[in-house]
Amino acid sequence: MGLFAVSALVMLAFVYWSTIGYMSSQTDSTIEAEIKGLADTYRRGGLQSLTGLVNERMRNDPDRNMLYLFATPDYKPLGGNLPAWPEAIPAGEGWVNFPFSHNDTESTARGRIFGVSGNLRLLVAMDIAGLQATESLLMKAYLWGMALALVLALVGGALMSASVTRRIEAINQASREIMNGRLHQRMPLKGTHDEFDQLASNLNDMLEQIDLLVESVRHVADGVAHDLRTPLTRLRSKLERLSIGPGLDASARQELDRCIDEADGLLQTFSALLRIARIEAGRHEASVVEVDLLELAADACELYQASAEDQGVTLSYEGSRIILNGDRDLLFQALINLIDNALKYAGTGEVKLQVGKDQRSIFLSVTDQGPGLSEEDRQRVTGRFFRGADSAKVSGSGLGLSLVQAVAGMHGARLELENVNPGLRISMRFLSDAEPG
Amino acid sequence: MRILVIEDDATVADYIVSGLAESGHTVDHADDGREGLMMATTEEYDAIVADRMLPGVDGLTIVRTLRASDNHTPILVLSALGEVDDRVKGLKAGADDYLAKPFAFSELLARLDALLRRGQHESVQVTRLQVMDLEMDLLSRVVSRSGQSIDLQPREFRLLEYLMRHAGQVVTRTMLLEAVWDYHFDPQTNVIDVHISRLRSKIDKEFEQTLLHTVRGAGYRLGERPQTA
């Protein structure tokens, strides 16, 4: 916008200066030519011819476009169509501008002094009132043009940037919705086939492609988990019946029980995977009710109190009553997973649940006093099957936080991990009031 | 007890039918929804186990149809979908309980037992529960064993109450979580066991005969020591 205005100004200035320049140089060269002609005449015919020529010129020019004045060395006018030698003219030769009056109108002339022999001087000048009028007209036009260009630039720029901002904002809005899990949302198209439309339509094609890939990955994962679940169930039931059945000694039965435990572990992992996939895909039909987060924290605390005490961990909760719409069982499951992780990885000290609302959002957090997580691990920790660096001694499928993440996403919440030295705090921040679904 | 099993997967059906038969039940089997619905409406059953996804008529439709025709046979719906929302849908349709596949047979049996007994004493309003020498007064909320009073936390009281109401039956961890804590999910950890062991230390520790038993791979049972399984 500014650029547009500046270039308009520069262009107008150029037109102005070149026009004015051209016109004054026209004037100057006319005078030069005249002086040259007069000088030639003088050289050939002497003073007599010069005076004759000047007189003839003056006769042919009743409008007095050209001005002539002979003068003595002390500037007494001897003849010509100027009443008196202009005051401001310096001695010697050179260009001068001077005012003069003609038919009672003030005007300006530009001329040159030409020395004739015997110390006579001849002033040859030209009325430049026309030139000046043109100049001031041009100046006026220039100023007006400048003002107009500025206004146009400002208004046009504002309109243009408003429209650009609007369209970028529309794309931003759509992106945010997509990031919030509404993967089927697309960029808005205006149908104008301009660059923005092209950008939007390219983005849409890209999203379509991503959608297709995600969908196929999900299909595979879902399919694998689902298809393996049934045979695993059969395997488990056969093992179970074998172990209940007669004719087994104690050690064989023990082995069978271990096999059943293994099968159970596998089935649980598959179930957890399927459940996460379903929640993430938004296919989980949430049973949304009003949930009191503080009550949830209190219940979770109560449920885990005994386990925590056995580990020598102090488990407590604090906060204020916060009601939000959500899936009570899933939120509870998420909270349980967080507590479970805190107990598993922190091991000692205190685990604190906090429910509240600050300037940023409603939050539900679990803070432990364990070793915390490295920056890198904090990024990766919600990925499927991620397990902490020295997790060999800790049981679990590595799906706990993935589920928490999925549940958070479904509730329009963001999962935040921060080291609080010592310890780790994981918070679910309910940023939007969006209904899960 | 006479039980109808409506399940189209032959292996799962076989698993349930033979398991139930071994536990002393009389079992009929239908392998599609239409046939199952027909059998359920024409015969008398003590309980019905219906898969949710069935060829012909699906499980929830069977439940709705039976309830609409004033048939209150306890129904347990099985589902391969196995998600909380399905559970809610199943219960809303009028099913009495809901079990996600894959399930341990012991879980199915425990839940079915609970349904069958509930059908029997549903109308009786009890104020006292007794299992051997363990007594619970539901009005004064006093628990005692052999006349010796036992001090319980409110949650422990509810836990014991549930176990006593289902005395002699196997009660699974998820059943406890649902009944005592009112949350529906698979705990996947030993969190319930810790509560049970606390309760056990209060009611069993000073007594020769233990009442609260762990049933391997299934859950818990309150009552006399079981005959070796």
Helical coverage of chain B, percent range: 40-55%
Structural class given helices, strands, pairing of chain A? alpha+beta
Low-confidence stretches of chain A: none
Radius of gyration of chain A: 48 Å
Strand content of chain B: 15-25%
Looking at the structure, the CATH topology of the largest domain in chain A is Heat Shock Protein 90
Structure commentary:
The complex is a heterodimer of chains A (437) and B (229). Chain A is of the alpha+beta class and 437 residues long. Chain A is 56% helix and 19% strand. In chain A, strands 2-1-5-4-3 form a five-stranded antiparallel β-sheet. In chain A, strands 7-9-10-12-11 form a five-stranded mixed β-sheet. Chain A has a two-stranded antiparallel ribbon with strand order 6-8. In chain A, a hairpin with a 3-residue loop joins strand 4 and strand 5. In chain A, helix 1 runs antiparallel to helix 2. Chain B has 229 residues and is of the alpha/beta class. Chains A and B meet through helix 3, helix 4, helix 5 and helix 6 of A and helix 1, helix 4 and helix 8 of B.
Task: Summarize the model shown.
The complex is a heterodimer of chains A (437) and B (229). Chain A is an alpha+beta fold.
Which descriptors apply to this entry?
heterodimer; A: about 425 residues; alpha+beta; Beta-Lactamase; Helix Hairpins; Heat Shock Protein 90; 3 domains; five-stranded mixed sheet; 8 helices; rod-shaped; B: about 230 residues; alpha/beta; five-stranded parallel sheet; four-stranded antiparallel sheet
Question: How does the SSE layout of this entry go?
Answer:
The complex is a heterodimer of chains A (437) and B (229).
Chain A: H1 2-59, E1 66-71, E2 77-80, E3 95-102, E4 105-116, E5 120-127, H2 129-179, H3 195-244, H4 250-280, E6 288-292, H5 293-311, E7 313-319, E8 323-327, H6 328-345, E9 349-357, E10 362-367, H7 375-380, H8 400-410, E11 413-419, E12 424-430
Parallel strand pairs in A: 7-9
Antiparallel strand pairs in A: 1-2, 1-5, 3-4, 4-5, 6-8, 9-10, 10-12, 11-12
Helix pairs in contact in A: 1-2, 3-4, 4-8, 5-6, 6-8
Chain B: E1 2-6, H1 10-22, E2 26-30, H2 33-42, E3 47-51, H3 59-68, E4 75-79, H4 84-93, E5 97-100, H5 105-121, E6 128-131, E7 134-137, E8 142-145, E9 148-150, H6 154-165, E10 170-172, H7 173-181, H8 191-203, E11 212-215, E12 219-222
Parallel strand pairs in B: 1-2, 1-3, 3-4, 4-5
Antiparallel strand pairs in B: 6-7, 7-8, 8-9, 10-12, 11-12
Helix pairs in contact in B: 2-3, 6-7
